[in-house]
Give the backbone structure.
Amino acid sequence: MTTVSTGAGELDRPLTAVPPGERGATRIADRVVAKIASQAAREAVGTLPPGAGRPSAGVVVHHEVAHVRVHVELDYPCDVGDRCRRVRHHVVERVGTLAGMEVPEVVVQVERLHPVAAHGAAQGRTR
């Protein structure tokens, strides 16, 4: 056994190897996972339409499994289903990578669609 001395007159104590499973735990707060999810949604949405709010997320974590609900605002017209699919995929990937959690469910709630004026309509033209 190896002994360690602090040199300050304290008692020598033996070093013991602690198995990895008994060393402690890392807990990531739900609000941290929610922040990761909202940032991932922001990355997936891309450029926000004028007046749109940033995506937000709520998370429930239980035993390293995160259930995520994301709120987004999108420009319209767009393929809403495809955009939501991209948000779900990116949130699952980023939360899994950055927090090491399984994400079996991402609910994407579209809060608002922002109409994007056609180029001619923006200049006051009609057909």
Observations:
- Residues 80-99 form the longest helix (20 residues).
- DSSP finds three helices and five strands in the chain.
- The first strand starts at residue 3 and ends at 4.
